[in-house]
């Protein structure tokens, strides 16, 4: 681990602008935000204190981080124009960056995690980490206090690390940290590391709920059909880019997931344009070729096919019919009937049809299980499961999922007619 230190002069880097500040100013505090429900272009009134030195205002929704235009009316009053947000979680938390300090607003539902409260955080609100180690895999913002350690945080775009707090791994865009914060070696070796912003003080503005992002009006009524994916453009992007998904029944999508087989499912921000067009923001931290899952109340669409495209390999093991298709950076195994074990190590995708059974698989896998398909309990951590009603999945995966496992029961799984590729690059 590396401890972040500084000289007597405080160094602050607010979103790319380097400032040297010798004298501390009053830390900003948010006490209220109105209105509570907003859409792009709406003006919010923010009350509190310490706003005269405001340098930046951010809104954070899951992995998405947006800068907002603002005007300082008085030390206790900000006017803010809500940015265009690709809704993912349906709400956004405000972060106010002052001259030498930063505050994050959190609701009264915030959770304090200590050494006696377990090792997994899944609640969709801000968390304060005091003592102990946490594998933080939700979309909540983590505020790591003195003595706290987050082993992994990939669900939020922003993290806050106070003096003597430790962050080992982070998949978001920005880390605010005080002097003496400690970071793991993985953060320093990333191809596209998060932006480090040093501040004198990190504070929490309590009892302030995130603003709710209004669902946009759509030109077509809900068809009560599952989504269908037909195209992804462009075929290559980097985190933060906007890609366009085309197909059908996309107007009432309620979640878009990028399934990174090394880290699990990451929620992406999105915005329906028409019932057949969806604009999606590529989440921070994702790499390589991406498996994309689009969800609405009637089912999911995924950018792989139900039948393997050529070339593929047909295997017969344990009286099972299994077809394998190597899709550049991940392996797709098509399990038709009978019972199989995974044919090797490494991350892979399993398409399990009615009558097919997977009895054992390694970690970092993703499973799509049709009605009548079966998945045993012998698989490694970091897996994601999508299954239709009538599919047999381990009870523990549904009632008490272990750390790193995500499970979704969906009405229907809709595969693409042909593979739809999205390769993720990185900025140099």
Low confidence ranges: 6-23, 115-137, 311-329
The third-level CATH topology of the largest domain is Immunoglobulin-like
CATH superfamily of the largest domain: Immunoglobulins
Number-wise, the strands total 46
Overall outline: globular
List keywords for this structure.
Immunoglobulin-like, seven-stranded mixed beta sheet, single chain, 49% strand, mainly beta, 3 domains, nine-stranded mixed beta sheet, 428 residues
Give the topology.
Layout: E1 2-3, E2 10-12, E3 19-21, E4 29-34, E5 37-38, E6 43-49, E7 56-61, E8 64-67, E9 69-74, E10 77-81, E11 91-97, E12 101-105, E13 111-113, E14 120-121, E15 127-129, E16 132-136, E17 142-144, E18 148-153, E19 158-161, E20 166-167, E21 174-177, E22 182-183, H1 185-189, E23 195-198, E24 201-205, E25 211-213, E26 228-233, E27 236-237, E28 242-248, E29 255-260, E30 264-268, E31 270-274, E32 277-281, E33 288-289, E34 291-296, E35 299-305, E36 313-317, E37 320-327, E38 330-341, E39 348-352, E40 356-360, E41 366-369, E42 374-375, E43 384-387, H2 395-399, E44 406-409, E45 413-416, E46 423-424
Task: Write structural notes for this entry.
This protein is mainly β. Mean pLDDT is 77; it is low at 6-23, 115-137 and 311-329.
In short:
By secondary structure, the chain is mainly β. Strands 36, 37, 38, 39, 40, 41, 42, 43 and 44 form a nine-stranded mixed beta sheet that branches. Strands 5, 7, 8, 11, 12, 24 and 25 form a seven-stranded mixed beta sheet that branches.
